[in-house]
Give the backbone structure.
Amino acid sequence: MNTSSPAIARNNRKAPRCERHDAFLHPEEQAELAARFPAGHQAQMAFLLAAYTRNASAVAALLGTRARTVHRHCRGWSLPPGPRLRRALRRRVLDLVCPRCLSDRAVEEARQAKWDARRAARRIPREQDRPHR
């Protein structure tokens, strides 16, 4: 039996799966995702906190909880996060480590920057034509 096939990893509940891109991920992308995905809730919470420059309030707003709860889970609070918080935490971490999500975000940011540049270029002639008061 070939245990290195992507189907084995896809059937394993412990393997991280991006809901949006699981069907499109190549085996090497799936391996990259599994390698970059932090194991455990404490590691995932610390990863999110590091990704948002230690801003516990922003992470708490993303997860729908309080900043104090975020700090407690990062420090290894004895109570595990509930199922709703675990799902939100997993979804946010997957969004930051999935190779396809990262490329989608880069494309969207490039499109937005291009749109902003076009908008700024259209505004410049209007502002120059106006008389100064």
In short: Residues 1-12 have pLDDT under 50 and may be disordered. The two ends are 80 Å apart (CA to CA). The helical segments are 6-11, 27-36, 41-51, 56-63, 67-74, 83-97, 99-129. The chain is about 65% helix and 0% strand.
